[in-house]
């Protein structure tokens, strides 16, 4: 028999996605697509004042409407839904799932309706009349820190959610004793100091699928099934079980198709607790689907960190020290990870540079706004933005090429693993290589000449460059209160096909494809013989979830380790069946055979048939081919890259146009470069969106001014240029795949490089920094009003 | 209640509906055609785009009764049996989707775009899809997908 051609290796190939056929035919199942017999609909009445006391709540009109099953006030909900738990060790104010006596942001739920139909539920919610005693709204974060104009929570004086936390050089291990001698010396020795206040503005994550929940408590079995548009069904299961006094074994959480998350679907929300709690109370299946207008109010926002940065340097461009004072406007309440997100900004303040002294401080402040939590990048884009804009200002002050200033201060390849001043240990890196590649791809020197020529003609053209390093592959369990591992069970089924579970539940990342590619190579079988199960705690026994660019580095590694265990056992069964030494066997083309003698081989189906009916049972083996593995990473991973932007601003209108965006990203080894490109593209769009057009705004009365897609600008196809992509590859030693993670990378470098390009274009008007977003009116003022 | 009769994906469908029922809810909830999605409530995002009498339309902005007597095509009716539409193929080949939520609407808008302009430039594709928001892809692979379909179409 002639040997069949060996299956090509799939890892590293641009394999098209296995998820797509169902999604391009409208056959995916998202939460709102789920129907259960006798299912009722839930709607929330939400506060339309930012800060107030509830004087009265009149539900009589709503209750009398045909089709309305129940109307519940916050106090009634509080009888069976306890206070909202958080996932960080910071102090947290009382937070009812539905407001009981006070409201603290526009959109906070004040009452709940259960009805037969979603239209009726909405009508009934509208018919609820709430009378508020309106209190002054706390909107300005720095004013809030003085306790003015009001306190959001009585027990948190001066609205300080997290009082000043220092970090960096000169702080003792317990973070209590401050010794500023190193940073003071750096600034005393400095020949140049640049200082700037910068706002990394509040954003709305806006996954295209709003949130949704279906909960089905079955009284006969005393079990709860909850479908939710979530990034982490296992964490959801734990919290829903605890809230309902049920065991984790009695709750099944399912994340079906999830239409994007971007960090905002990590949090466990009031609506999830309330819908589950009501289903248990009524013994009925219930559905709630978020409207977009609701999502702008009730889904967590991201960013909103004010940074005061000072950089001390020598005249020849060596950075001696950096101070970064951070003030985070976290909105009205602590949600699951709210308080932890800005700590990541502190953690990554070292950026890509070898800086002798860094002092950072962080203060987190309550205001009468929607709570913040993770949004793509979650703390790292903010750090990158502050430091990279600061470095850009320093380069301008020194008259140095911004690329050369960076190069002069890089952590060098031979310094890895590199312990930063901020307590991180960067795993691996070659920042100069990424910079060089980006400069080459952008034709940096020619580009500078083109810019100069254009400016000489009177055109407002500018160039911006930014480096980034981020913390991904989260992470050791010491850094995550949920645990930082991932889990997988890999099974060679009785027919020889392979199934694998993963707790890294995707929402667009394509894990069914990338994890399949890995297993196909590991076992030497076609991709079509593999199924990846995810997003269902009834099927996937353990898991953490998908966030922090961790699914490949942590989840992928768990699959790899479980696969290796199954493969080892399978080799023993094959050795017994073929009567060969297991060390002489090769896995190839869906067969296991003696190396060099393919005719000796047996198919996966034949070996599985033996393993599941093991007569005779080989000595030392148990039946079956199914093994599980937990993977606990010893460290995070630290991908990096360089982004370059070319921008032109219309002198007459102030309208900025992004002409080029050159990206070089290093995420370590890549499983599927096509999917990686897609991930970076999406991140770039969001990073550019922040720089140019996105901003959540509030009026002085705490009323949101950006409550729909008519006011909040998500980038459209015509807003973006064709991205120029490339990658360098610096594997991580943290996991056997060498993969670092790439989901958030695009949001890091793009934002500061785009803003720096705008500043470069307008530098002739004396401007050295422009706060985001780059509203044409703001740029026009700089051009025509002489304002900086 | 109002009687509506709409030809959906080639099949005549009749029902008594609330006069205020949106076409998208008629499709999703009465007919269980859940491939058409709802992503906003202000007609910006385009996730609900279908073809009404051959032209792309946002089904969250039309009452079911307004579509009475019309022919509606949804994503479920786009393929020709087992044969994917060139745009469906293009999106698959070029990785034109990630979470997939905007995808049905994006594809239906692109059908209209290519009908009007079978060989669009990149700029024309980007401007032609401005009524459809995608938060995952940064649009580049969507542009490639439409170009792929235009080349093969």
Automatic annotation (TrEMBL), chain B:
GO terms for molecular function: 2 iron, 2 sulfur cluster binding; metal ion binding; oxidoreductase activity. InterPro entries: 2Fe-2S-bd, 2Fe-2S-bd_dom_sf, 2Fe-2S_ferredoxin-like_sf, 2Fe-2S_ferredoxin-type, Beta-grasp_dom_sf, Diverse_Oxidoreductases. PROSITE patterns: 2FE2S_FER_2. The keyword Oxidoreductase applies. It holds the Pfam family Fer2_2. Keywords: 2Fe-2S, Iron, Iron-sulfur, Metal-binding, Oxidoreductase. Coiled coil: none annotated. Residues 2-78 form the 2Fe-2S ferredoxin-type domain. SUPFAM superfamilies: 2Fe-2S ferredoxin-like, CO dehydrogenase ISP C-domain like. This is 2Fe-2S ferredoxin-type domain-containing protein. It comes from marine metagenome. The lineage of its organism: unclassified sequences, metagenomes, ecological metagenomes.
